[in-house]
Design goal:
Length: 227
């Protein structure tokens, strides 16, 4: 599976660092994103912790529509368009301003989630999802995507009070998992794929090591820079 922005350039040095955590529901993305942000802050970096969908004023309403069981049966194309709208506003309101001042942006979910969930999971034609994702994000790619790989039978099946996507069934979540793995396999240099059920600290150490290498290469400054 080719990433929508496989030919897009990473933002140049001095414009911040963009790190994304991806993976299925219950993979531990929130925990690892929090640990990375704590480490970055301790190292003196200006760090912005964010997530999709929902971390913008409009995004909160979009998130409710997308995840609430009360929304009912959304057409997969409508679902894809809502995720795209959230991404466009999120980049405008949160991500691009932070990168522009030189911050390290750590995001829980981004484009790969749309490709995996709506493309592979909902079987919306991947080329259509790819085109929409590229347009919605202006082809902005993360410097690093951390994929926490987990069998959905270990993370979703027994969960109580599932949201609308978590309730989509085993076959759906199997396709989502494979979609993530295909994206990582197609562009391994931009990904760090880790088994989500390893020790939390071990995973955090692997992530911090890789991010430290990127910070050194890109010369991302420490300390807050005024916009």
């Amino acid at each position: 599976m080719e990433h929508p922005d496989s030919h897009a350039a990473t933002p140049p040095a001095g414009t911040g660092l963009f790190v994304v955590f991806e993976g299925g529901d219950g993979a531990g993305k929130t925990t690892q994103a929090d640990l990375l942000c704590s480490w970055l802050a301790a190292e003196g970096h200006d760090v912005v912790r964010t997530f999709e969908p929902g971390d913008s004023l409009a995004g909160r309403k979009i998130r409710e529509l997308l995840l609430s069981p009360e929304t009912g049966d959304l057409d997969p194309r409508a679902e894809t368009l809502l995720y795209s709208a959230d991404k466009a506003q999120h980049l405008h309101e949160v991500v691009r301003p932070a990168l522009g001042r030189g911050a390290v942006v750590v995001c829980d979910r981004y484009v790969d989630s749309m490709l995996a969930y709506q493309g592979a999971g909902r079987t919306v034609p991947l080329e259509e999802v790819t085109t929409l994702a590229r347009w919605a994000t202006g082809a902005l790619r993360p410097d690093l995507t951390v994929l926490l790989d987990v069998d959905p039978r270990e993370s979703v099946a027994d969960k109580v009070d599932k949201d609308r996507l978590e309730s989509a069934g085993e076959a759906f979540h199997d396709r989502v998992r494979q979609g993530f793995l295909d994206l990582a396999a197609a562009d391994p240099e931009r990904y760090l794929v880790l088994p989500a059920r390893r020790e939390i600290r071990w995973i955090a150490d692997q992530v911090a090591t890789r991010v430290a290498q990127l910070l050194e290469m890109l010369s991302v400054p420490t300390g807050r820079i005024d916009p």
